[in-house]
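FAQ

Q: What does a record look like?
A: Structure on top, sequence underneath. For example:
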């Protein structure tokens, strides 16, 4: 959607703020800064990388520092949204950036004035999140979550993910029997498949038949 344009550092010398027609000692002709900015922005939004766009960016660089800064700040933030996703508009607003790039983001639908929910974590091979499992009680699912503890008792092994024992909101994989498990790295993500049920109508669990049913992901 947005074409990335190589831009050069902002010059200290230049023209007045938005909306004015200014001239530069580096240019024999006056530059309409606002028109140049808006035309470059239109080409950028169309994904057009052309000599016309490059010339307009160069013109802003030489003669229109305020427009050039707004343009480059906008481009940098757009590229950041590829990694971060849509954020609240206030997330991007600060004294160094100013209001213009944020206004443009809002026009593009790349920031929101409404609270933005954090993205849900993605689990290996599309597993169901441990914190969603309770609503799937009674069904067979592959559940994943961050390892919190492994409790090995004489009568079974309890692998807690998401939250640790004794929290009632934890998710637990239970393996009945006298088993010995190899140590699992504390930073691991754990997944396993089985029928989800509520132990004593409280703790969400899946019973497994053997330790090798546990998937360990780094």
């Amino acid at each position: 959607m947005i074409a990335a344009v190589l831009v050069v550092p902002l010059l200290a010398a230049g023209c007045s703020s938005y909306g004015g027609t200014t001239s530069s000692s580096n240019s024999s002709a006056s530059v309409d800064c606002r028109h140049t900015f808006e035309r470059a922005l239109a080409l950028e939004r169309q994904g057009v990388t052309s000599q016309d766009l490059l010339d307009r960016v160069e013109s802003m660089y030489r003669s229109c520092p305020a427009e050039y800064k707004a343009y480059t700040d906008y481009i940098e933030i757009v590229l950041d949204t590829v990694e971060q996703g849509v954020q609240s508009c206030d997330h991007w607003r600060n004294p160094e950036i100013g209001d213009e790039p944020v206004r443009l983001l809002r026009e593009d639908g790349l920031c929101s004035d409404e609270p933005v929910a954090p993205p849900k974590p993605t689990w290996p091979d599309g597993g169901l999140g441990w914190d969603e499992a309770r609503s799937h009680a009674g069904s067979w699912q592959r559940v994943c979550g961050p390892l919190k503890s492994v409790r090995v008792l004489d009568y079974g092994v309890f692998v807690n993910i998401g939250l640790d024992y004794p929290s009632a909101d934890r998710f637990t994989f239970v393996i009945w029997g006298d088993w010995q498990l190899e140590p699992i790295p504390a930073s691991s993500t754990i997944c396993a498949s089985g029928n989800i049920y509520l132990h004593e109508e409280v703790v969400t669990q899946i019973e497994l038949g053997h330790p090798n049913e546990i998937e360990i992901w780094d």
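Q: Is there anything notable about this one?
A: The longest strand covers residues 140-153.
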